Amino acid sequence: MPTVQVGVEDFDKIPEQLTPAEEAEIDRMVLPLPKNWTGDFDGIRQRNYLRILVPYSKTFYRVDRGIQQGIDYDYGKALETWLKKKYPPKVKSQPFFVAFIPVQRDQLLPDLIAGKGDIAMGGLTVTDQRLALVDFTTPFADGVREALVTVPGFPEVTNLEGLAGKEIMVRGSSSYYEHLTAINEHLEAQRLPSISIIKADEWLESEDLLEMVNAGLIRATVVDRYLVQIWAPLFTEMQVNDSVYINKGGDLAWAIRKNSPQLKSVLADFMKEHRVGTTFGNIMVKRHVRDNKRILNATSEEELLKFRKLVDLFRQHGINYNFDYLMLVAQGYQESMLNQKARSHRGAVGIMQLLPATAADPAINIRDIDKDAGKNIEAGAKYLRLLTDKYLNDAQLDPVNKTLMAFAAYNAGPGNLRKFRRLAEKSGNNPNIWFQNVEYAAARIVGEETVKYVANIYKYYVAYKLALQMRESRNGQVEQGH
After folding, report:
1. N or C: which end of the chain has fewer CB within 10 A?
2. Max avg pLDDT among 174-178, 214-218, 307-311, 440-444
3. Beta bridge partners of residue 147, listed in sequence order
4. Which member of 146, 211, 303, 335 is catalytic?
5. Residue 297, Cα to own-chain centre: how many angstroms?
6. Interatomic CA distance for residues 114 and 394, integer angstroms
7. How far apart are CA 260 and CA 115, in angstroms?
8. CA distance linking residue 382 with residue 358, whole number of Å
9. Counting beta carbons within 10 angstroms of the beta carbon of residue 51, is it exposed (0 to 12), middle (13 to 18) or buried (19 or more)?
10. Is the per-residue pLDDT at 289 higher than 70?
């Protein structure tokens, strides 16, 4: 449900620019980014802080209204505490501290090499390709298996040859991609069809891909088996293939730059007391099992029936107001599960959860949105278009990011969106890209609600897109007599 819905009559009351007070508020939230530096631990001690590169992830690192959370955050704070005791500062008024720097996952190693951080976390598996670029600490976990995770009914795979011809989605920067590519070489030598490896968006973390498999958005992925154990209580529909693993005996470790012997030695001492199997390591495994409820299955037969009944209305208004109609469908699903009878305690009604007063404003001028699904969808699309044209008339924004930010404005209000983008810019992130840039600022300013709102819409969009493609493919095969 929208947290903030600005009446159209209030549009002109929102200044074109942030007020001085709002700018000052943003300035207070800006995280200073340290300059690139590539030294060893002696230099880290001298400057009195250590930089940790982390992926933004529900499992490893996240921020909710300024509160940092996740496995990497807890490990980083434990390292900070340990270093303070092991290497007490010369000046007590200047205690040692750890700074967390979120980056897109495929930038963890490049940014580490460039000197933007001193350690790269994120549950990295040690691989030959990565060892050619960076060094690794003593593993904090070993014997890690990479498991195939699929939708129910997916054929069981009992050997590597059983992967031939299967379609699997993983991130291109992941160890899973490396290992699937190696298996393809084996399959080709056996003259078997290759695995069709689909590269996922780099902003999608392993738990996101598990969530999408669980909801039927994609058919198969590969993740570390321990991540399956963490998320299995939440994602109960996914099917884990334990008959054969994509990789066995993997080591999880933190990446550091080559030629950092001092830092490597210090971290080896830390791992003796903190790796998985120690009291602290086992506490970490247990602490991060729970998370918010999983996304609903937007592609179940019941939900697709709703979709098919409404798709012509969405398509019509998508054309009229210049939106990808599947994005509008996805928003409608996030708002109400495509339920025209939905009502909120704030008075929002119907599929797009608009206030009747907002829809009746002369700038929209659509009434009876509580009674007519078509009018409700049109009012939502028209309101979204007004938000886009007034607050996102920016040539630097591509169509997808413009739409994603319009959804954020729909949820949190256009004034907050302006704050999100400004904080992102001042924090060294791209104000024109939502995922892993502006969404970081949104999490700090209003919390995770808007971040999840936009992310869910995008996932549902992917769901409808894939569902339509599969349906069109099946229809094409039937027409060709296959």
Report:
1. C
2. 174-178
3. 223
4. 335
5. 18
6. 31
7. 12
8. 11
9. buried
10. no
Band the pLDDT of 341: cuts 50, 70, 90: very high
pLDDT in tens, 186-218: 999 999 999 999 998 887 889 889 988 987 878
Closest among 404, 346, 356, 401 to 376, alpha carbons compared? 356
Q: Facing residues of 101 across strands?
A: 53
Burial readout 101-134 (b: 16 or more C-beta within 10 A, e: otherwise): bbbbbebbbbbbbeebbbbbbbbbbbbeebeeeb
85's CB contacts (< 8 A; 6+ apart) are none
- Look up the pTM and report it: 0.66
The answer to whether residue 472 is catalytic is no
Whether the Cβ atoms of residue 121 and residue 53 lie closer than 8 Å to each other: yes
Query: Under a CB-based contact definition with an 8 Å cutoff, are residues 4 and 416 in contact?
Result: yes
User: What are the tokens at 377?
Assistant: 């969808």
Phi first, then psi, for residue 150 (nearest 5°) are -135, 170
Q: Is 369 exposed, middle or buried (0-12, 13-18, 19+ CB in 10 A)?
A: buried
Q: Is residue 154 scored above 60 in pLDDT?
A: yes
- The confidence score (pLDDT) of residue 452 equals 85
CA–centroid distance for 132 within its chain: 28
Closest CA to 331 of 216, 317, 219: 317
Q: For residues 415 and 408, is the Cβ–Cβ distance under 8 A?
A: no
Residues 6+ apart with CB under 8 A from 132: none
Return d(Cα 315, Cα 216) in angstroms, integer.
Answer: 23
Query: Taking Cα atoms as reference points, which of 311, 305, 303, 375 lies closest to residue 333?
Result: 303
CA 285 to chain centre: 21
3-state secondary structure of 198: strand
Closest listed residue to residue 436, CA positions, set 461, 416, 463, 458 = 458
Q: What is the DSSP letter of 106?
A: G
d(CA 462, CA 295): 13
Comparison of pLDDT for 305 and 15, the residue scoring more: 305
Q: Could you give the maximum distance between any two Cα atoms of the chain, in Å? A: 80
pLDDT band for position 29 (cuts 50, 70, 90): low
Residues 225 and 373: their CA atoms lie apart, in Å, by: 44
- Contact (Cβ atoms closer than 8 angstroms) between residue 249 and residue 143: yes
Q: Is 276 helix (H, G, I), strand (E, B) or coil?
A: strand
